[in-house]
Task: structure prediction
Amino acid sequence: MNRLANRIGIRGWMVGLLVAMLGWIGTPVLHAAEPFRFPEGKHGRSELKRINNVPVLILQGTPEEIGEAYGTLAVKPASILVDAVPDLVVLLKLQKRYGEVIEHGTTLLSHTTPAHQAELAAAAKAANRKPELFTFANTLADLYKIGGCSTIVVESSRSKTGGPLFGRNLDWPPFRNLGEHTLVTVFKPEGKHAFAAVTLPALMGVISGINDAGLSITLNEIKKAGDNSPKLDLDGVPLAFLLRRVMEECTTVEEAEKLLRTTKRTTYGNLTVCDRNGGAVIEITPKTVNVRKAVNEVCICTNHFRTDGLAEPAKCWRFDALQKTQNASDKLGVPDVIKNLDNVNQWVWTMQSMVFEPKERILHVSFTSTGSATGKPFGEVKLGPIFDQLNAAK
Result:
């Protein structure tokens, strides 16, 4: 295991946790008989359908209508996974802190908008689940750091498509068949931008998303910061809903930066942001917002701060691998971005991989519970027509 871990780049504590996880979840993760598939269906004005083998849930209406449809179409069908959340709590060794996690999460969610709170309440009611399920799912990123994600943004001048390309791996512990429950959820809140989030059941915030203006955003978790800021500020807006507000309210990288600066932030994070013209990494803590622009027309990001005042001494093999592309001069297309993502995959940890085309508003996405998502087929979802239809509806 240690030799394999070194080959694929898993380090230190990750090896022990991976061994424990494989022992806990056993063969169903590695040899699933039948992958989970969300059933297609409709509820009110909302619909779940498959596009190029990607489940796409399209939600519209009032907060209550959106929440009810989400609970019915996204959470109810995932009952086996949702029922296993207590096992995930044990696996993450959070059982002694679970009460505190829910208490803090409840406090954080109280700082979201009334519309977001109404959605969460309606979803819990429709799914016949306790609200704490949604509290746990939507605030875990603020309260527990474990992910190891990677992103790469290719500016238009180095893109074969003529527009920017934004690649992202979501790396997270391989619990049960979690990756198979990936869902592209399109939201059209009243009076807000339509947007799509690559998400999981009960996660109604955003960790990877693109909106109708082509603005795209992702979250990479950070454990250390050099500005002596607290690791958690309970007066802040939880990360998943902070990113959701960016999707609902902003159209450019500059607007996203302004919103992030003027909103109280809970914890550390690297936010990779890209619009139709290009991208940046916005490094945030409760005290600081720093912006890191592209180098040689490529912007890369993993799980460490890199800007003055925030950077801490760190080595990351994934950053080094992506930097080789940054230092080159060749142009890149979607397959090339996927190859770069595959070069930094973390085996069973890489449960989602995706490429956004902000100018064309296209998503290419792969997900799995077996091996790395970068080695699985990517499905193309043309989100532009979906956004336009939702925005045109009365």
Notes: Confidence is low (pLDDT under 50) at residues 1-13, 18-32. The two ends are 56 Å apart (CA to CA).
